[in-house]
Amino acid sequence: MSAHFDLSLEEMKSYGYKIVDLIAEHWDTLNDKKPVTSATRKEMDNLFLQEAPNTGMKANEVLDFVMDNVIPNSTVISHPKAYSFVPGPSNFISTMADSLATGFNIFSGGWVASPAAAELEIVTMNWLLKMFNFPVEKGGGIFTSGGSMANLTALVTARRIKCGDDFSKAVIYLSDQAHSSNIKAIRVLGFKKEQIRILPTDIEFRISINKLKNAIAKDRLEGLQPFCFIASAGTTNTGTVDPLHDIADICEEENLWFHIDGAYGGAAILSKKGAKALRGIDRADSLTVDPHKWFFQPYEIGCLLVKDASWLSNTFSEKPEYLRDIEGNESEINFYDYGIQLTRRFRALKFYMSIKTYGLDTFKEAVTYNIQLADEVEKILRKSRNWEIISPATLAVINFRYNPIGLNLSEPEIDALNQQISKRMMESKEALLVTTILNKQVVLRMCLINPKTTIDHVKETFLLCNKFAEEVLAEKK
Ligand SMILES: *Cc1c(COP(=O)(O)O)cnc(C)c1O
What we know:
By secondary structure, the protein is of the alpha/beta class. It folds into two domains: 99-357, 3-Layer(aba) Sandwich (Aspartate Aminotransferase, domain 2), CATH 3.40.640.10; 361-476, Aspartate Aminotransferase, domain 1 (Alpha-Beta Complex). The chain contains 15 helices and eleven strands. The strands form two sheets. Strands 1-7-6-5-4-2-3 form a seven-stranded mixed beta sheet, sandwiched between helices. Strands 8-9-11-10 form a four-stranded antiparallel beta sheet. The termini are far apart. It binds pyridoxal-5'-phosphate (PLP). Pyridoxal-5'-phosphate (PLP) is lined by residues 86, 146-148, 151, 179, 181, 232, 236, 261, 263-264, 290, 302.
Protein backbone atom coordinates (compact mmCIF):
# COMPACT_ATOMS: atom_id res chain seq x y z
CA MET A 1 0.00 0.00 0.00
CA SER A 2 1.35 3.42 -0.88
CA ALA A 3 1.11 6.26 1.57
CA HIS A 4 -1.30 8.87 0.33
CA PHE A 5 -3.37 11.79 1.51
CA ASP A 6 -6.00 11.63 -1.19
CA LEU A 7 -9.71 12.10 -0.72
CA SER A 8 -12.21 11.51 -3.49
CA LEU A 9 -13.67 14.52 -5.27
CA GLU A 10 -16.96 14.03 -3.46
CA GLU A 11 -15.24 13.72 -0.09
CA MET A 12 -13.25 16.90 -0.68
CA LYS A 13 -16.32 18.82 -1.72
CA SER A 14 -18.55 17.79 1.13
CA TYR A 15 -15.77 18.39 3.67
CA GLY A 16 -15.00 21.79 2.15
CA TYR A 17 -18.65 22.88 1.95
CA LYS A 18 -19.08 21.97 5.58
CA ILE A 19 -16.19 24.24 6.56
CA VAL A 20 -17.45 27.12 4.43
CA ASP A 21 -20.88 26.76 6.04
CA LEU A 22 -19.34 26.86 9.49
CA ILE A 23 -17.34 30.00 8.71
CA ALA A 24 -20.29 31.79 7.08
CA GLU A 25 -22.54 30.90 10.02
CA HIS A 26 -19.92 32.22 12.41
CA TRP A 27 -19.86 35.56 10.59
CA ASP A 28 -23.63 35.68 10.52
CA THR A 29 -24.07 35.03 14.26
CA LEU A 30 -21.20 37.04 15.75
CA ASN A 31 -23.61 39.18 17.74
CA ASP A 32 -25.09 36.14 19.49
CA LYS A 33 -21.71 34.98 20.76
CA LYS A 34 -19.65 36.04 23.71
CA PRO A 35 -16.27 37.45 22.79
CA VAL A 36 -14.26 36.18 25.75
CA THR A 37 -13.01 32.68 26.46
CA SER A 38 -10.73 31.56 29.20
CA ALA A 39 -9.22 28.23 30.08
CA THR A 40 -6.32 26.98 32.11
CA ARG A 41 -3.45 24.95 30.77
CA LYS A 42 -4.78 22.00 32.75
CA GLU A 43 -8.21 22.22 31.15
CA MET A 44 -6.66 22.43 27.69
CA ASP A 45 -4.30 19.53 28.43
CA ASN A 46 -7.28 17.46 29.52
CA LEU A 47 -8.99 18.15 26.21
CA PHE A 48 -6.12 17.82 23.79
CA LEU A 49 -2.95 16.31 25.21
CA GLN A 50 -2.20 12.97 23.54
CA GLU A 51 0.50 11.17 21.58
CA ALA A 52 0.41 11.61 17.80
CA PRO A 53 -2.03 8.89 16.69
CA ASN A 54 -0.60 6.28 14.35
CA THR A 55 -3.98 5.48 12.93
CA GLY A 56 -6.25 8.20 11.68
CA MET A 57 -9.95 8.64 12.16
CA LYS A 58 -12.77 9.97 10.00
CA ALA A 59 -12.20 13.51 8.69
CA ASN A 60 -15.64 14.63 9.84
CA GLU A 61 -15.06 13.32 13.33
CA VAL A 62 -11.86 15.33 13.65
CA LEU A 63 -13.66 18.38 12.30
CA ASP A 64 -16.52 17.96 14.77
CA PHE A 65 -14.04 17.60 17.61
CA VAL A 66 -12.32 20.80 16.53
CA MET A 67 -15.61 22.69 16.25
CA ASP A 68 -16.65 21.50 19.69
CA ASN A 69 -13.36 22.10 21.47
CA VAL A 70 -10.90 24.30 19.61
CA ILE A 71 -13.07 27.07 18.22
CA PRO A 72 -15.05 27.71 21.43
CA ASN A 73 -11.78 27.99 23.35
CA SER A 74 -10.56 30.87 21.18
CA THR A 75 -11.36 34.53 21.80
CA VAL A 76 -13.66 36.03 19.18
CA ILE A 77 -11.38 38.90 18.27
CA SER A 78 -13.73 40.05 15.46
CA HIS A 79 -16.64 40.42 17.91
CA PRO A 80 -18.21 43.91 18.12
CA LYS A 81 -17.55 43.88 21.87
CA ALA A 82 -13.88 42.91 21.56
CA TYR A 83 -12.40 46.28 22.54
CA SER A 84 -8.97 45.29 23.78
CA PHE A 85 -5.47 45.11 22.37
CA VAL A 86 -5.91 45.79 18.68
CA PRO A 87 -9.00 43.86 17.57
CA GLY A 88 -9.07 41.97 14.27
CA PRO A 89 -12.34 42.90 12.59
CA SER A 90 -11.32 41.08 9.38
CA ASN A 91 -13.70 40.72 6.41
CA PHE A 92 -15.33 37.74 4.76
CA ILE A 93 -13.98 38.23 1.23
CA SER A 94 -10.39 38.19 2.50
CA THR A 95 -11.15 35.13 4.59
CA MET A 96 -12.16 33.27 1.45
CA ALA A 97 -9.24 34.76 -0.48
CA ASP A 98 -6.90 33.26 2.10
CA SER A 99 -8.56 29.90 1.54
CA LEU A 100 -7.89 30.23 -2.19
CA ALA A 101 -4.27 31.17 -1.63
CA THR A 102 -3.85 28.19 0.66
CA GLY A 103 -6.02 25.88 -1.42
CA PHE A 104 -3.92 26.43 -4.51
CA ASN A 105 -0.79 26.63 -2.33
CA ILE A 106 0.60 29.52 -4.32
CA PHE A 107 4.30 30.21 -3.79
CA SER A 108 4.75 33.95 -3.49
CA GLY A 109 8.54 34.11 -3.44
CA GLY A 110 9.89 34.40 -6.98
CA TRP A 111 8.50 35.87 -10.17
CA VAL A 112 8.90 32.79 -12.32
CA ALA A 113 7.05 30.55 -9.88
CA SER A 114 3.99 32.80 -9.73
CA PRO A 115 4.10 35.92 -11.89
CA ALA A 116 0.53 36.85 -11.01
CA ALA A 117 1.23 36.63 -7.28
CA ALA A 118 4.27 38.88 -7.65
CA GLU A 119 2.31 41.25 -9.88
CA LEU A 120 -0.56 41.51 -7.38
CA GLU A 121 1.94 42.32 -4.64
CA ILE A 122 3.38 45.05 -6.88
CA VAL A 123 -0.10 46.39 -7.68
CA THR A 124 -1.38 46.41 -4.11
CA MET A 125 1.92 47.85 -2.90
CA ASN A 126 1.42 50.68 -5.41
CA TRP A 127 -2.04 51.31 -3.95
CA LEU A 128 -0.49 51.58 -0.50
CA LEU A 129 2.42 53.75 -1.67
CA LYS A 130 -0.04 56.15 -3.27
CA MET A 131 -2.26 56.16 -0.19
CA PHE A 132 0.66 57.31 1.96
CA ASN A 133 2.03 59.68 -0.68
CA PHE A 134 5.21 57.64 -1.12
CA PRO A 135 6.82 57.69 -4.60
CA VAL A 136 5.20 54.91 -6.63
CA GLU A 137 7.96 54.63 -9.25
CA LYS A 138 10.95 54.55 -6.98
CA GLY A 139 9.32 53.34 -3.79
CA GLY A 140 8.44 49.80 -2.91
CA GLY A 141 7.49 47.47 -0.16
CA ILE A 142 6.70 43.97 0.94
CA PHE A 143 3.95 42.12 2.77
CA THR A 144 5.10 40.39 5.93
CA SER A 145 3.44 38.21 8.53
CA GLY A 146 2.63 41.27 10.64
CA GLY A 147 3.82 44.55 12.04
CA SER A 148 6.58 42.95 14.11
CA MET A 149 8.21 41.44 11.03
CA ALA A 150 7.70 44.68 9.09
CA ASN A 151 9.51 46.62 11.83
CA LEU A 152 12.31 44.05 11.89
CA THR A 153 12.63 44.22 8.10
CA ALA A 154 12.74 48.03 8.30
CA LEU A 155 15.46 48.10 10.93
CA VAL A 156 17.65 45.55 9.13
CA THR A 157 17.37 47.78 6.05
CA ALA A 158 18.03 50.99 7.97
CA ARG A 159 21.16 49.54 9.51
CA ARG A 160 22.42 48.13 6.21
CA ILE A 161 21.94 51.44 4.36
CA LYS A 162 23.17 53.76 7.12
CA CYS A 163 25.93 51.69 8.75
CA GLY A 164 27.05 49.04 6.27
CA ASP A 165 28.86 46.20 8.01
CA ASP A 166 30.15 48.04 11.05
CA PHE A 167 27.44 49.06 13.46
CA SER A 168 29.56 49.00 16.60
CA LYS A 169 29.00 52.71 17.22
CA ALA A 170 25.46 52.94 15.88
CA VAL A 171 22.74 54.32 18.17
CA ILE A 172 18.98 53.95 17.69
CA TYR A 173 16.26 56.15 19.26
CA LEU A 174 12.64 55.47 20.13
CA SER A 175 10.10 56.63 22.70
CA ASP A 176 8.88 54.85 25.81
CA GLN A 177 5.50 54.46 24.05
CA ALA A 178 6.99 52.73 20.98
CA HIS A 179 5.63 49.22 20.44
CA SER A 180 7.53 46.36 22.09
CA SER A 181 8.13 44.71 18.70
CA ASN A 182 10.68 47.43 17.95
CA ILE A 183 12.73 46.56 21.01
CA LYS A 184 12.45 42.89 20.06
CA ALA A 185 13.70 43.71 16.56
CA ILE A 186 16.59 45.72 17.94
CA ARG A 187 17.52 42.76 20.13
CA VAL A 188 17.27 40.34 17.22
CA LEU A 189 19.65 42.62 15.33
CA GLY A 190 22.22 42.21 18.09
CA PHE A 191 22.46 45.76 19.34
CA LYS A 192 23.81 46.20 22.85
CA LYS A 193 21.81 47.96 25.53
CA GLU A 194 24.21 50.91 25.30
CA GLN A 195 23.18 51.44 21.69
CA ILE A 196 19.48 51.96 22.44
CA ARG A 197 17.97 55.23 23.68
CA ILE A 198 14.43 54.98 25.00
CA LEU A 199 13.27 58.56 25.37
CA PRO A 200 10.51 59.70 27.73
CA THR A 201 7.29 61.11 26.29
CA ASP A 202 5.38 64.25 27.29
CA ILE A 203 2.01 64.32 29.08
CA GLU A 204 0.29 63.56 25.77
CA PHE A 205 2.56 60.53 25.22
CA ARG A 206 4.45 62.16 22.34
CA ILE A 207 8.20 62.06 21.98
CA SER A 208 9.87 65.18 23.39
CA ILE A 209 11.72 66.85 20.51
CA ASN A 210 14.03 68.63 22.91
CA LYS A 211 15.05 65.38 24.62
CA LEU A 212 15.65 63.76 21.24
CA LYS A 213 17.91 66.61 20.13
CA ASN A 214 19.82 66.50 23.40
CA ALA A 215 20.33 62.75 23.17
CA ILE A 216 21.61 62.92 19.59
CA ALA A 217 23.99 65.78 20.40
CA LYS A 218 25.37 63.96 23.43
CA ASP A 219 25.92 60.75 21.48
CA ARG A 220 27.76 62.65 18.73
CA LEU A 221 30.05 64.19 21.36
CA GLU A 222 30.78 60.66 22.59
CA GLY A 223 31.87 59.72 19.07
CA LEU A 224 28.85 57.49 18.50
CA GLN A 225 26.80 57.20 15.29
CA PRO A 226 23.12 58.11 15.67
CA PHE A 227 21.55 56.25 12.74
CA CYS A 228 17.83 55.71 13.20
CA PHE A 229 14.74 57.08 14.89
CA ILE A 230 11.55 55.05 15.27
CA ALA A 231 8.44 57.22 15.50
CA SER A 232 4.95 55.98 16.33
CA ALA A 233 2.03 56.92 14.11
CA GLY A 234 -0.63 55.77 16.46
CA THR A 235 0.81 54.27 19.63
CA THR A 236 -0.91 51.09 20.68
CA ASN A 237 -1.73 52.47 24.14
CA THR A 238 -3.32 55.79 23.23
CA GLY A 239 -3.30 56.22 19.43
CA THR A 240 -0.88 59.11 19.84
CA VAL A 241 1.04 60.28 16.78
CA ASP A 242 4.54 61.62 17.35
CA PRO A 243 5.29 65.07 15.85
CA LEU A 244 6.28 63.64 12.47
CA HIS A 245 7.34 66.84 10.68
CA ASP A 246 9.59 67.93 13.55
CA ILE A 247 11.18 64.50 13.72
CA ALA A 248 11.62 64.43 9.94
CA ASP A 249 13.48 67.76 10.13
CA ILE A 250 15.84 66.38 12.77
CA CYS A 251 16.42 63.16 10.85
CA GLU A 252 17.28 65.15 7.72
CA GLU A 253 19.65 67.45 9.61
CA GLU A 254 21.31 64.60 11.47
CA ASN A 255 21.32 62.04 8.66
CA LEU A 256 19.18 59.58 10.60
CA TRP A 257 16.95 56.93 9.05
CA PHE A 258 13.35 57.88 9.77
CA HIS A 259 11.21 54.81 10.43
CA ILE A 260 7.55 55.23 11.31
CA ASP A 261 5.71 52.42 13.03
CA GLY A 262 2.17 52.92 11.78
CA ALA A 263 1.13 49.33 12.46
CA TYR A 264 -1.76 50.51 14.54
CA GLY A 265 -2.62 53.97 13.20
CA GLY A 266 -1.44 54.00 9.59
CA ALA A 267 -4.81 53.00 8.15
CA ALA A 268 -6.32 56.17 9.63
CA ILE A 269 -4.94 57.88 6.51
CA LEU A 270 -8.19 56.69 4.87
CA SER A 271 -10.24 59.22 6.86
CA LYS A 272 -9.99 63.01 6.73
CA LYS A 273 -9.42 63.37 10.45
CA GLY A 274 -6.87 60.57 10.48
CA ALA A 275 -4.99 61.99 7.50
CA LYS A 276 -4.72 65.28 9.38
CA ALA A 277 -3.35 63.54 12.47
CA LEU A 278 -0.82 61.68 10.32
CA ARG A 279 0.57 64.72 8.52
CA GLY A 280 4.25 64.23 7.80
CA ILE A 281 3.95 60.43 7.47
CA ASP A 282 5.14 60.74 3.87
CA ARG A 283 8.51 62.01 5.08
CA ALA A 284 9.54 58.63 6.51
CA ASP A 285 12.24 56.52 4.88
CA SER A 286 10.29 53.43 5.89
CA LEU A 287 6.78 52.90 7.17
CA THR A 288 5.16 49.89 8.82
CA VAL A 289 1.45 49.40 8.35
CA ASP A 290 -0.49 46.36 9.44
CA PRO A 291 -3.36 45.37 7.16
CA HIS A 292 -4.52 42.70 9.64
CA LYS A 293 -5.50 45.49 11.99
CA TRP A 294 -7.34 48.52 10.61
CA PHE A 295 -7.34 47.52 6.96
CA PHE A 296 -9.72 44.76 8.08
CA GLN A 297 -7.68 41.79 6.82
CA PRO A 298 -7.55 38.40 8.57
CA TYR A 299 -4.21 37.28 10.05
CA GLU A 300 -1.47 37.32 8.90
CA ILE A 301 -0.57 40.34 6.85
CA GLY A 302 1.74 43.19 7.74
CA CYS A 303 3.43 45.57 5.36
CA LEU A 304 6.60 47.59 5.06
CA LEU A 305 6.79 50.53 2.65
CA VAL A 306 10.07 52.23 1.71
CA LYS A 307 10.90 55.36 -0.27
CA ASP A 308 13.40 53.51 -2.44
CA ALA A 309 12.84 49.86 -3.33
CA SER A 310 16.55 49.35 -4.04
CA TRP A 311 17.19 49.73 -0.30
CA LEU A 312 15.34 46.46 0.22
CA SER A 313 17.01 44.56 -2.62
CA ASN A 314 20.43 45.88 -1.57
CA THR A 315 19.79 44.56 1.92
CA PHE A 316 18.16 41.21 1.24
CA SER A 317 19.36 39.96 -2.18
CA GLU A 318 21.33 36.77 -2.15
CA LYS A 319 21.91 34.84 -5.32
CA PRO A 320 22.16 31.14 -4.46
CA GLU A 321 22.76 28.80 -7.38
CA TYR A 322 19.60 26.79 -6.72
CA LEU A 323 17.42 29.82 -7.42
CA ARG A 324 19.10 30.82 -10.72
CA ASP A 325 16.30 29.47 -12.87
CA ILE A 326 13.57 31.45 -11.19
CA GLU A 327 15.28 34.84 -11.42
CA GLY A 328 13.22 36.97 -13.79
CA ASN A 329 14.50 40.11 -15.43
CA GLU A 330 15.08 43.40 -13.61
CA SER A 331 11.46 44.64 -13.54
CA GLU A 332 10.13 41.26 -12.47
CA ILE A 333 10.40 41.42 -8.72
CA ASN A 334 11.31 38.39 -6.64
CA PHE A 335 9.86 39.27 -3.27
CA TYR A 336 12.33 36.94 -1.57
CA ASP A 337 14.85 39.66 -2.48
CA TYR A 338 12.88 42.27 -0.53
CA GLY A 339 12.73 40.61 2.87
CA ILE A 340 13.63 37.70 5.09
CA GLN A 341 11.33 34.93 3.87
CA LEU A 342 11.98 32.80 0.80
CA THR A 343 8.83 30.71 0.74
CA ARG A 344 5.95 33.09 1.33
CA ARG A 345 2.22 32.63 1.32
CA PHE A 346 0.20 34.71 -1.13
CA ARG A 347 -0.79 37.57 1.18
CA ALA A 348 -1.46 40.11 -1.54
CA LEU A 349 -4.47 38.14 -2.77
CA LYS A 350 -6.75 38.95 0.15
CA PHE A 351 -5.78 42.59 0.13
CA TYR A 352 -6.41 42.73 -3.63
CA MET A 353 -9.71 40.84 -3.64
CA SER A 354 -11.19 42.75 -0.69
CA ILE A 355 -10.36 46.17 -2.14
CA LYS A 356 -11.57 45.13 -5.60
CA THR A 357 -14.81 43.76 -4.13
CA TYR A 358 -15.71 46.41 -1.58
CA GLY A 359 -13.95 49.40 -3.15
CA LEU A 360 -11.64 51.76 -1.31
CA ASP A 361 -14.63 53.97 -0.41
CA THR A 362 -16.01 51.24 1.83
CA PHE A 363 -12.69 51.10 3.69
CA LYS A 364 -12.66 54.89 3.97
CA GLU A 365 -16.20 54.93 5.38
CA ALA A 366 -15.37 52.21 7.88
CA VAL A 367 -12.27 53.97 9.22
CA THR A 368 -14.11 57.30 9.35
CA TYR A 369 -16.95 55.62 11.24
CA ASN A 370 -14.53 54.10 13.77
CA ILE A 371 -12.95 57.48 14.52
CA GLN A 372 -16.37 59.12 14.93
CA LEU A 373 -17.52 56.28 17.17
CA ALA A 374 -14.59 56.82 19.52
CA ASP A 375 -15.35 60.57 19.60
CA GLU A 376 -18.95 59.78 20.50
CA VAL A 377 -17.83 57.40 23.25
CA GLU A 378 -15.67 60.20 24.64
CA LYS A 379 -18.70 62.52 24.76
CA ILE A 380 -20.74 59.92 26.65
CA LEU A 381 -17.98 59.45 29.22
CA ARG A 382 -17.46 63.18 29.67
CA LYS A 383 -21.16 63.65 30.47
CA SER A 384 -21.07 61.02 33.21
CA ARG A 385 -20.26 61.71 36.87
CA ASN A 386 -18.69 58.26 37.17
CA TRP A 387 -16.11 58.32 34.45
CA GLU A 388 -12.88 60.19 33.92
CA ILE A 389 -11.09 60.38 30.56
CA ILE A 390 -7.38 59.69 30.92
CA SER A 391 -6.47 59.88 27.24
CA PRO A 392 -9.06 61.33 24.83
CA ALA A 393 -10.27 59.56 21.69
CA THR A 394 -7.32 59.49 19.30
CA LEU A 395 -7.41 57.43 16.11
CA ALA A 396 -10.25 55.37 17.62
CA VAL A 397 -8.45 54.59 20.91
CA ILE A 398 -9.72 55.94 24.21
CA ASN A 399 -8.57 55.42 27.81
CA PHE A 400 -10.72 56.12 30.84
CA ARG A 401 -11.36 55.06 34.39
CA TYR A 402 -14.19 54.76 36.85
CA ASN A 403 -13.74 57.50 39.40
CA PRO A 404 -17.09 58.92 40.57
CA ILE A 405 -17.26 62.54 41.62
CA GLY A 406 -17.76 62.87 45.36
CA LEU A 407 -16.43 59.47 46.41
CA ASN A 408 -12.91 60.82 46.90
CA LEU A 409 -11.25 57.45 46.36
CA SER A 410 -7.48 57.24 46.78
CA GLU A 411 -5.30 56.39 43.75
CA PRO A 412 -4.72 52.78 44.91
CA GLU A 413 -8.48 52.39 45.45
CA ILE A 414 -9.25 53.71 41.96
CA ASP A 415 -6.64 51.36 40.47
CA ALA A 416 -8.11 48.37 42.30
CA LEU A 417 -11.65 49.32 41.35
CA ASN A 418 -10.87 49.57 37.64
CA GLN A 419 -8.90 46.35 37.74
CA GLN A 420 -11.97 44.70 39.28
CA ILE A 421 -14.28 46.12 36.61
CA SER A 422 -12.10 44.55 33.93
CA LYS A 423 -11.78 41.27 35.84
CA ARG A 424 -15.53 40.94 36.32
CA MET A 425 -16.21 41.90 32.72
CA MET A 426 -13.85 39.17 31.54
CA GLU A 427 -15.44 36.66 33.92
CA SER A 428 -18.87 37.55 32.56
CA LYS A 429 -17.39 37.01 29.05
CA GLU A 430 -19.69 39.81 27.80
CA ALA A 431 -16.95 42.09 26.51
CA LEU A 432 -13.21 41.87 25.95
CA LEU A 433 -12.14 44.86 28.03
CA VAL A 434 -8.77 44.91 29.77
CA THR A 435 -6.64 47.57 31.40
CA THR A 436 -3.43 49.31 30.54
CA ILE A 437 -1.20 51.60 32.59
CA LEU A 438 -0.90 55.30 31.76
CA ASN A 439 0.95 57.73 34.01
CA LYS A 440 1.14 54.90 36.59
CA GLN A 441 -2.68 54.72 36.69
CA VAL A 442 -4.70 51.60 35.91
CA VAL A 443 -7.08 52.57 33.11
CA LEU A 444 -9.61 50.83 30.89
CA ARG A 445 -8.81 51.01 27.20
CA MET A 446 -11.07 50.69 24.17
CA CYS A 447 -9.76 50.31 20.64
CA LEU A 448 -12.80 50.84 18.45
CA ILE A 449 -11.68 49.71 15.00
CA ASN A 450 -14.46 47.23 14.37
CA PRO A 451 -17.08 48.68 11.98
CA LYS A 452 -19.61 46.24 13.46
CA THR A 453 -19.35 47.93 16.85
CA THR A 454 -22.25 50.33 17.42
CA ILE A 455 -22.72 52.98 20.06
CA ASP A 456 -25.35 50.69 21.62
CA HIS A 457 -22.78 47.92 22.05
CA VAL A 458 -20.59 50.39 23.92
CA LYS A 459 -23.47 51.70 26.02
CA GLU A 460 -24.38 48.13 27.03
CA THR A 461 -20.77 47.58 28.04
CA PHE A 462 -20.73 50.78 30.13
CA LEU A 463 -23.95 49.71 31.88
CA LEU A 464 -22.24 46.48 32.87
CA CYS A 465 -19.11 48.36 33.98
CA ASN A 466 -21.26 50.57 36.21
CA LYS A 467 -22.98 47.52 37.66
CA PHE A 468 -19.66 45.81 38.43
CA ALA A 469 -18.24 49.00 39.94
CA GLU A 470 -21.25 49.38 42.24
CA GLU A 471 -20.95 45.75 43.30
CA VAL A 472 -17.28 46.20 44.16
CA LEU A 473 -17.98 49.39 46.12
CA ALA A 474 -20.89 47.74 47.96
CA GLU A 475 -18.73 44.74 48.93
CA LYS A 476 -16.18 47.10 50.47
CA LYS A 477 -18.71 48.70 52.81
C1 LIG B 1 0.37 45.63 16.70
C2 LIG B 1 1.53 46.52 16.60
C3 LIG B 1 2.79 46.04 16.21
C4 LIG B 1 3.06 44.57 16.00
O1 LIG B 1 2.36 44.08 14.92
P1 LIG B 1 2.00 42.50 14.83
O2 LIG B 1 1.18 42.45 13.60
O3 LIG B 1 1.25 42.17 16.08
O4 LIG B 1 3.26 41.76 14.72
C5 LIG B 1 3.81 46.94 16.05
N1 LIG B 1 3.62 48.25 16.29
C6 LIG B 1 2.43 48.76 16.69
C7 LIG B 1 2.29 50.22 16.93
C8 LIG B 1 1.34 47.90 16.86
O5 LIG B 1 0.17 48.40 17.28
